[in-house]
Design goal:
By secondary structure, the chain is of the alpha+beta class. It has one domain (65-246): Aminoglycoside 3'-phosphotransferase, Chain: A, domain 2. It is 41% helix and 18% strand. The chain has a 5-stranded antiparallel sheet. A 3-stranded antiparallel sheet has the order 6-8-9, covered by helices on one side. Strand 2 (16-21) and strand 3 form a beta hairpin. The longest helix has 21 residues, at 209-229.
């Protein structure tokens, strides 16, 4: 029909789907608790987020953010060093905000899930055993006590939007909650290790880089099964399996 906006499928799997219609994103999620966390977190976050247009379960409508993603996993980022530093500064502003009023996951819960994922990887011979065991040892460094901060929880580089050197917003807040500050920094730089110095400079605080590297290993080990089962390829160049190999 003439004049109708084109519908773009941004992502779709059996748990949720995101469609873009013009300047509106429609998020359809089977788990409305996840959507509730996203809406609440965006309302509390002290950094730019998408504007909620309306919510009619299971659909959440969000306004598109201006600009483009800071980068993509598996691809070189065209963003400037200043933009990466601005991302670090935005993360620090989030972490300095009051904690959201719902619980987060602690080291013991994360360790139990990690052990289950490693067992699955080994039982199904998905990647070489030494790749799993070596990265599992590295991952243990991340599983220490931490002081919780307001964490995004899934701060992939593709979730941060920029115009020039300025951050215009951060999307996908379904995993937000009290968490480890270094986890957010690790997910932001996963597969983009060359930008870690810029992010840390913008963050403006001393960080333990060994813990960040440990989170790279942990996140990659945890993600492989989910990605494979949802139609994504963790073996694509620069993605999760390459991240694990880089730690060897």
């Amino acid at each position: 029909m003439a004049g109708m906006e084109q519908v773009e499928v941004v992502v779709a799997h059996h748990e949720c789907a995101t469609l873009r219609v013009g300047d509106v994103f429609l998020k359809i999620d089977s788990d409305q608790a996840r959507t509730g966390v996203e809406v609440a977190a965006m309302a509390l976050a002290p950094i730019p987020t998408p504007r909620v247009l309306w919510r009619k379960p299971p659909v959440l409508a969000l306004a598109a953010l201006p600009g483009a993603a800071l980068g993509r996993l598996g691809e070189p980022s065209a963003a400037s060093p200043a933009a990466w530093a601005a991302a670090g500064a935005a993360v620090r502003k989030l972490h300095d905000a009051p904690l959201p009023p719902w619980p987060g996951r602690g080291p013991d819960e994360i360790r139990a899930r990690l052990d289950g994922e490693c067992e699955w990887l080994l039982a199904n011979d998905v990647i070489p055993r030494d790749l799993v065991t070596h990265n599992r040892r590295i991952a243990e460094t991340a599983l220490r006590p931490w002081t919780p901060v307001f964490a995004h929880g899934d701060l992939q580089v593709a979730h941060v939007f920029i115009v020039g050197d300025e951050i215009t917003g951060v999307i996908d807040w379904t995993e937000a909650g009290p968490g480890d500050a270094l986890f957010d920094l690790a997910i932001l730089t996963l597969g983009h290790e060359e930008h870690l110095d810029e992010v840390v400079a913008g963050y403006g605080a001393d960080v333990d880089r060994d813990v960040i590297r440990a989170w790279w290993s942990l996140r990659s080990l945890q993600a492989i099964r989910w990605l494979a089962e949802h139609g994504f390829d963790p073996a694509a160049p620069g993605c999760e399996i390459d991240v694990l190999k880089a730690r060897m």
